[in-house]
Structure formats: structure tokens, C-alpha cells
Amino acid sequence: MVQTDFGGPEAMFLQDVPEPVCGPRDVVVEVAYCGLNWLDLQQLKGPAVIPGFRLPHVPGMDFAGTVVATGSAVGSIVSGDRVIADPTQGCGSCRHCAVGDRAYCVSPRILGANAPGALAEYVLVSADSIVSVPESMPLSAAVTLPTAFATAWYAVHTVGSLAAGETLVVHAGASSISLAAITLAKRAGASVVAFASTDAKLDAAGAAGADLLLRNGDPDAVKTIMIFTDGAGADLVLDHVGAETWRTSLDCLGIRGRLLLMGNTSGDQVSFSLREVFHRGLKLLGVGGYTSADFVAAMSACFAAGLHLPTAARFPLEDMARAWDVFGARETMGKVVIEP
Fold first, then answer.
1. In this predicted structure, what is the pLDDT of residue 152?
2. How far apart, in whole angstroms, are the C-alpha atoms of residue 311 and residue 27?
3. N or C: the chain end with fewer CB closer than 10 Å?
4. In this structure, are strands 234-239 and 167-170 parallel, antiparallel, or unpaired?
5. Which parts of the chain have pLDDT scores under 50?
6. Sequence-ordered strand ranges (E) for 142-211
């Protein structure tokens, strides 16, 4: 699927393009499944979000498939391997890539964002971004992992340092990242409070393991969380909504609580009392981009425990217009998956 303009589904066409050719450190993967992400839809609508984006463009960040070709310098991956990949590819040579911090590469290369993605029969990826999928996990489940679980792992564990016995509050509880965060938090022995806008989305958060379910805008939400935590308040809040949920996020934190900031979909500007933050010992933590080590750790944990997101809907590549409609309605719980 080739995006030739900005707009809606009419800006994308099914086309024949040349098959990708391996560089020395690349692999070509035959795509079995591609999972949609919000970045795909944002860049379809325009303007471009990621530097280096150019039209025409093939979207698709998350994929699962089978290796069909390897570069001359690739030794650990062979044709036939079942794989997924970190969409954040990097340049491989800058100071950030050298230490595995590809999210801050000086010349970022991201599958489906500014490099050809996986809404295609074949995708070209760097060999060092590849993770093999064990036979115990179907590729249809593995495709739900890369962006959601790597981002959630980095937020909850690396930045947030969530510990057993703590309480995590999650906004937008039925989004892919939130469902992944709930799953990881319960695996770590934490309690989880999830907010969502509808009963169906609350049910999805509950199915992922959330212990307390609250509707967005509940005027008694903070009081309820305080009762749930025996007056201690939450230890960690994961907020990728922004201005709309800012006050609730701060108010429900306990002493020395940590607020993970990783999104601004409802607005970017907020205000707060410096005294409130330093007096209560709060930590306001920008999550940023995960590292390559976090990606591997997250995928390994998911494989070991059989963790994955539910598949909300599945479409063939030629039915992308309907897929965009379903995905853009924001009513799905889990991943919308394409089968090239």
C-alpha cells in the first residue's frame, strides 16, 4: 500500500513496487501480518510527524513474518527464521546508535514512518533490530507486541521502576500501550487502576488484569483511588493523554509518587504548583523513546509468559480503506492487523 498524498484512504493505493534488496547488514522479511499504529494514521492524514518522511511512502511499523534473504555480513539470522523487528532502526553509526539508543539517532530511520514499512509483501530491516519468535507463539500474536509492549515496558519498568505491591494508574485503559502496561504491571505483582470512556473499554482493561475500573471524568475518581489504596494514593501514573487528565494524575498520586508523561493527545500545556510537587516529593518523568535493550527485554518477557494483545480486527491488504475506518473510529480494543 503506497501513500501518495495526505488525506484519507483515497490517498493510498495498492501498487506493485520493486522487491527490497539486502545491504550487507540487512534482512528481507516476507510479511505475514502488519499491525496498525496511530503514527500510521497521523501521517496518512498529514502533515508528516517524523523528520525525513517523503511521498510516496509505504506505512506499517509493526510486523511479523519469515526471513527470505540476508545480507553478506549477517551471520546469526537465516532464511526461514520467524521474526519481528524493532521499528526504530537508527543509522547504526552515530553515538546514540552505538549505545543502543536508536530512538535518539541523529539520522532517525523508522519503519513505516520515514522508511518503507510493512504494509507490503516484503520489508527490509536491519539485522540488529531483529528478534526471533519462538515456535510457541503464533506470528498472529507476535505482531501485536513490538511498539505497544516495548513502549509500555520502558515506561513501567525502566523509567517508572514499578515494584510488586505498588499501585499503577493508567489512563486510556483500552489503548494498545495501556493494555500492554496493565498486563506487564500485573505480571510484576502490582495493582492497577484503569480509566476509560466506555463500558466496553473498561471491560477490555479488566480483561487485561486491571483491578479497579473508572470512567473518564468521574468526579469521585481521586477519592475512590485513595480508598482503594487505603489512603496512600497511587505510586505510579501512566499518562499519555495530556492536559485533560493532568489534574487527576497529580491528585491521585501518593507521597513520592511518580508521574510518567508520554503523550499530549488532549493538549500540550498544563499548569501546576511547584510547591505541591516538591512538598509531596513527586517525580515528573518524561518517558521518551525506549532503547534497543528494552525492546529485547520486553519481547523476551512476552515470549516467556505468552503475553500479547488481543486482535480487534483483521483485514487483507486490499481492504485498507475499511481498516482505516475501523482503526480511526477509536472503538477497537487491541490491534487492527493487516494480512499482506
1. 98
2. 27
3. C
4. parallel
5. none
6. 167-170, 191-196
